[in-house]
């Protein structure tokens, strides 16, 4: 049986860093028998921004492509709804497959996990 691991990413994309090392490290979980959920909190919700017509733009392109790859590999990617709303982002602005998670449901998600990674 797969272990459930929740990885929480809080840091947003930075202009000086094309790829976020935390996203790369999270991708390694795909190599082992892990049921992975990636939660984007705070500024990290900006990693999931898709550009017009689903095409990523600017510095966010690499992050959005990484998230799309994780989603396509079966990783659940969730953005905290309140953090997305505070930045003017709805589900339509996010990479396809990224779900919105209400912050009050996060504690239950963490309680059910076998392990939590906090980046």
TrEMBL record:
Taxonomic superkingdom: Bacteria
InterPro entries, sorted: DsrEFH-like, Sulphur_relay_DsrE/F-like
This protein's name: Uncharacterized protein
Organism: Egibacter rhizosphaerae
